[in-house]
Each structure stands twice: as structure tokens, then as C-alpha cells.
Input
Amino acid sequence: MGQQQVRSKKSKIERKKFLKHLLLDVEALDEMLRRNLIEKNIQRIGAEQELSLVDAYYKPSRKGPAVLNRVNDPHLTTELALYNLEINLDPQVLKKQCFSKMEKQLQALLAKTDQAAKAVGDKVVLSGILPSIDIRSGELDFMTPNPRFYALDEVIRQLRGEDFELNILGVDELILAHTNILFEACNTSFQCHLQVDPDEFVDQYNWAQMISGPVLSACTNSPLLFGRELWSETRISLFQQSIDIRSKGYHLREKEQRVSFGKGWVSEITEIYKEAIARFTLILTDTVEEDSMSVLKKGGIPKLAALNLHNGTIWRWNRPCYGVGSGIPHLRIENRYLPSGPSVIDEMANFAFWVGLMKAMPEHYKGAWQHKSFEDAKGNFYRAATSGLHSSMVWEGKAIPSRNLLLDHLLPSARKGLLDCGIELEEADRYLNVLEGRVKKGLNGSVWTVKSFRNLKKTLSREEAMVGVTAAMHTRRMSGLPVHSWRLPTKLEIEDCRMPYDWIGNFMTTDLITVQEEDLLDLVEKIMDWKRIRHVPVEDRKGNLKGLITHKMIGQAKDTNQPDRLLSAADVMRTDLVTVGKDADIRFAILLMVDKQISCLPVVEGNRLIGLITDRDTQQLWEKMKDHEA
Output
């Protein structure tokens, strides 16, 4: 998440000083480009591995700081949530066996993290979105206690001025309001960096945009969120919506999201930075000691601290980066859309494929972006995020299935690109063969996850299937095999997992049939017969829970009712309801139903119904809990 010491509550004078430094930084970057001070004729690669920590029940852990302390390695750092850590890998010069060297370091650091996690009862999972995650992870007690994160949350909430909303439609639909930025932490990625010569930066950045859709289609790995099947790479939509500061309006004014693909091809390096300053308000500032232009005039190299801090709060899926290493400034393109996992070999294959394609840009693309359709590139990206390997790409003006484009055109180009920049043939083949096998089989991380989830749901509850997929993902990651060779988990395998039979939200029924107070009782009876249900909640027009009707109540009402009287739901429903809140423990709920001798327990948030637990549910749960405790 970048620099740690930042301010959110700032005086007007502090803000003005920071803005002045921001403008001086852009001026300094322009000056360095004019004077050819930016490093060229060498390329390096780098990567950041984000990971999730899960507890004994494969649920998000709060032990990230404890694991970090045990690892005690400067390559590891905290992330937004307590269940996330980040591994920063050493840069490698792009030649010979650079990917193997990076993979070896990543495996070693992951092994240290695995060992430290095991010591505190946790495990490491690599996934774009943890399949077992539930909405409790969005509560502030999961946020890492870091001033930057609190400042970021505070400022974004103030700018938003209202609750955040998630609205994602896939196979299922998720509509959810939340009050902080912590749902952003559900996303974990494998962020890849490629150093680029300044003379080639514009073409390379535009080309990075062009290939984003096809590359992402092969690499998707986050199809589930809170047990709902959404996009193949749900991270894309979740990240954009979870920190969207734009408020709703009834006008046609266009406002770009801070998380975006962009609005068009770029024509100069600093254009992206200038666009970010012009369009996006400051959300974080810091005290900047050096005046970048003064540093340049004295013969030094500025860090451009203000520019980098502001750029760190603009989350483009392909992001330009300025850095200084050993006193020498350089430019990089950061690929932020590749997901974490599901295995190290899969991630490194994704990385090698992207770098190979970046180095294989056709000659006729250089300087000819005005003849290319940016809308096609952007459309490809979102189609890939939505449908992954099942998507269709528009390439050179023609629609083509993603798998055909990858196999027939882009994989051969990536192989040539790697060889042309000095990567050994054996090295290139090792990683690109993983991509080829994945695409030919049509089995990337998101496809495997969905197939596993659906298979487990045939005999298990949704919550059990979510946990089961996560457990299987961890086990198979430890095998070192790529995802297209993974077998699907079975019920027998999952029975060995410890299930978190605790929170009522994971076991209540949320797909509810309800009726209105004024609805005809005959209609209520028919609905119960059609849907084969024994309980129907009654709501008012504002969605408030008003009562409950059972088959027994309907029978009693008919026995005592005059035949010509048209009864409504309000005439029959029971209003003295026993309810529990959304944070209730499932054991408490079961015992409450036994004590009150009720067969149905509504779960409410305020006056609104959000779920139901019935005696049939609790009977099955009680048996499973006894089996797991035995």
C-alpha cells in the first residue's frame, strides 16, 4: 500500500505546500526527461506477492502482525487487513534465468511465511479473493493498525459522503452497502513490474493497455465473493466499487473512478501524472523536505515524493511508476490486474507471459496509436474480467475467442519476445508451457474454483463448500503443481476440514420468500404450497419485518373464519416474534429455538429481515457440530 507516514487531517497551508511540491515534481520529471537523466538500455523485472492468512477453519485470520514478526524479513510487510501480507521480491535484470531466480526467492520467502503461519495456527492461501471470506472481514477490527490505512479510510469516507455500495452481477448477484474501505482488502494480487526506457515508454504503456484483456482472460482467479459466483475476476469490480468516492447524482456529469483502466491512449510520459493531478483530489499528504527542482539544479536526483504519494492513490490497472535505485532514476510499468495464485508456478507463468508479450510489440504499432481503438482494448479488459477464458476479444478489428487468440497468436509472440531479450529457451518454455496447458484445457484458477464450488454444493451447504474450496486450494498450492493439473476436491476430502460452526450469517437462508401485510391469505397458502415451505415472513412496504405465518396458523384461521371473509396476512400472522441479530452465534440461536419452542428464527438487522434459520437447518447443523467435536 506504499508509504506509511502520511496525514489525512491537514491544514490549508500544509495542503498548499504539498500541492506546490506536487507541481514541482512534475516539472522535475519533465526536466529529467529532456536532459536524458532517466536510466535506459537496461531492463529489470520486479514483483509484489500479496497473500491471505487463514485460521484453523480456513477463515481470514487476525494474526498477520504475529506472522510478520516471526518471519522477521524486510522483504515482508503488512497490508490493509490483518489477514494480508505482502512479499516484495528483489528486482532482476531481464536476461537468461531471471524468472527462475525470482521464483526461487519467492518460494523461499513463502516457505518462511508458511512456517511462521503454522507456528501461530494459520495457513497461507494464494487467491485473488479468498473463497471462504465472509462479510465479517469488512469490519474495522480486521484493519491493520497503521496510520496510513486509517487516514485513507477516513478521507475516502468523507469524500464519498455516504455508504459505499457493492453491486456486482454474475451467475449470482451481490448488492451490499458498507461503511469503510476494508472490502478492498478482499483483493490480493501478484503485481508485476517491468522497467522501460523513457524513449519507449509511451508505446510500451499503450501496448500494455492493448494486451491487458487477453492476458487477464488466461489468468483469472477470483470468481467467488461471499459465496456468490460473480465475475471470473471479481477483483476488478470489487476494487473499483469498494473505494469509489463518487456519490450518486441525477445529472450526466462524468467522473472517472480512482480505480480505472483509463480513458484513452497516452501521448507523453508525464501526461498520466498530469491527468491524475487534474482529475483527482488529494486524499493523502505528507511533509516533503526536498524541492525537486532545487535538487536537480544542485546535480542531485529527486525522489519525487509528492508525485509518488499521489500516484499511489490512483489505482490504474496499468500504472506508471518512477523510482530511484542506487541514485539512478528509472521508469516502470506496474501490472496490477494479475491475481494472486493459485500457485507460484501459475503466477510466474503469468508474469513471464506478460513480459514476453510486452517485448513482442509489433513494429507497426509504434507511434500509430491514433489508428487503434482504445475502446476495443478497454472492452476486452472488462470482458476478460467478466468471463475469463470463455470471453471473446476484439483484435485487429475482428472478434475472436480468447483461447484461439492466446494459442494461435499471443503465446508464440510471447515466446519470441522472451528469447529476443535474452531469456533462455528452457526458461521460456517452462513458463509458457504452463500457460499453454492451462488455455488448451480451459482450466485456470477461476474455472477450477467454480467447478470445485459447484461440485461440493451438491452435498454440502454453501458455507461448507466455501471452506472446502479454500482448504483444497491450500493443499494443492503446497504440491507445487499448476492449476490445470489440479483435481477437484471431493466431499470425503473436505470432511477432514474443521468447519467454523459459529456465525449465524454463514448458515441462515438468505434467498427468502416473503409476503406483504395486505396480501390475501389464500395467496400466502398457495405460495407455501408451490415453494414447499413451512414459514413465510410478512413485511411492510418499507421492508420492515412485521410478522410470521406458518401452515398451522393458516389452518387454524380457516377453521374459525367466516367463508365470505377475505383474510389478509396481517389478520393471521404472529407478531410477538423471537429474533436474533446478524452477529449471533449459531449455538446460541439453536438453544434459543429449543428454549422458546419455535421452529423458525428470523435474523434481523434493525427492523429488516436478512435471513431465516429453521428447525430443519439446526437439526442438520447440530449433528455436524457433534461430529466435528467428537
Q: What stands out?
A: The longest helix spans residues 12-34. The chain has three domains: 12-204+218-340, 445-492, 505-629. Residues 1-9 have pLDDT under 50 and may be disordered.
